[in-house]
Amino acid sequence: MQQSNVKKFAPLLATISLLMAGILPSSANNHGDYNTYEPAILKIIETIKNGELNNALVLTETHLQEFPKSRVGHLLKADILQALVFNPTSFTSSSYQRTKEIPISSETTLGLRHQIRNRWLHHNRDQLTHSKLPASLVDMGRHKHVMVSDMSAGRLYLYRNRNGEPELVKDYYLTVGSAGYGKEYEGDNKTPIGVYSIYQHIPGAELPDLYGKGAYPVDYPNRYDRALKRTGYGIWLHGTPSNTYARSPWASEGCFVLSNDDLLDIEKYIDVEGRTPVILADEIEWVSPAELDQRRERLNRTIQAWQKDWESLNTQAYLDHYSRENFNFGTENFNPWARRKEQVNAAKTFIQVDLAVESLFLYPGETDMFVVQYQQKYLSNNYAGATTKEQYWRRESDGRWRIVYES
């Protein structure tokens, strides 16, 4: 299209492009390689920022030929066409800024600009995410892969267990609840913050179109959620409807959502039987590999001290590893339980405890709390048994880590 004709018809074409961004037929197919989707968008934004609007228009039209369901692509095209007549669009302006306090729906222009912003910000800090690790990934234990979200940035990171050390496999653009994150009750349209695991796969053929190519439910509410009386259910990792490629960052009813292409990619790493962990964090704390190793060592020493005091038959030292004020998340009296433990230990001549940590994660959204799952083998003079256990530990005001929940 010649530049003079672009200028003449830009307002009309921009309107049509915006309408396409909101109303795309489900029969529209994308034929592009999904690995090129985000790089193409980032290249368009960079070209616009450099003031090369005609080149940006060519790139956008190529992107839309490959991904006709790209609502962001249609919005970028509309911005470019408007800019060719009026003023260049600034992708660092306040129209692209976003705070977690203001919910927006998936189908608004503001929502699409939020998506552009998240993709661009991730692009700018990509080097950080490859040189540092999430502080929550203290010990992946037996798990081959773990997912970690940064919901404030709209990103889901996939890590593999490389000889006990987390290694980034790849990351994905992520959509969360239309009201943000920090779920408290059923119907609040927020995505929960916490540590969960995937326990099921539901094929897309068994679901409404909203869920795309399939769904992976997670075990919300977990024990901590229930202790805090959080309600709701049906929190899934799932795909996108057939009439769009990627939804806006805040658009679901509380689920966490990937494009269908990304969902089909990440499912290669999901182990339903092994219950792949998902850490839904509001914001990731990034630390160096050395610092993560130090945290792993410190927290494992904390658990080993509890184990040693249990085996020593020094019941008071053992009981001091448990929180008196916040026992069982503050829902149970510590004293009756402690008296039972004293009676049990009085009948022991020896105790031997072997632990194999299956996972140890700092709990997102909380200050100084971690959750550990482990296989426990217990042997004493009058009992032997093996079980899978879970503990929540919190650092208390005296600086000591203590168990606030055990099952």
Name the CATH class of the largest domain: Mainly Beta
The percent range for strand residues is: 15-25%
Instruction: Indicate the percent of residues in helices.
Output: 25-40%
List the secondary-structure elements in sequence, H or E: HHHHHHEEEEEEEEHEEEHEEHHHEEEE
Structural class: alpha+beta
Q: How many whole angstroms does the radius of gyration measure? A: 25 Å
Average residue-wise pLDDT: 89
- Strands of the widest sheet, in order across it, are 4-3-2-12-6
Q: Can you tell me about this structure?
A:
The protein is α+β, with helices and mostly antiparallel strands. It has three domains: 3-91, no CATH class; 126-286, L,D-transpeptidase catalytic domain-like (Beta Barrel), CATH 2.40.440; 289-406, Nuclear Transport Factor 2, Chain: A, CATH 3.10.450.50. The chain is 34% helix and 23% strand. The protein contains eleven helices and 17 strands. The chain has a five-stranded mixed sheet, with helices on one face. Strands 7-8-9-11 form a four-stranded mixed sheet, with no helix packed on it. It is elongated, with a radius of gyration of 25 Å. The N and C termini lie far apart (67 Å). Residues 89-106 have low confidence and may be disordered.
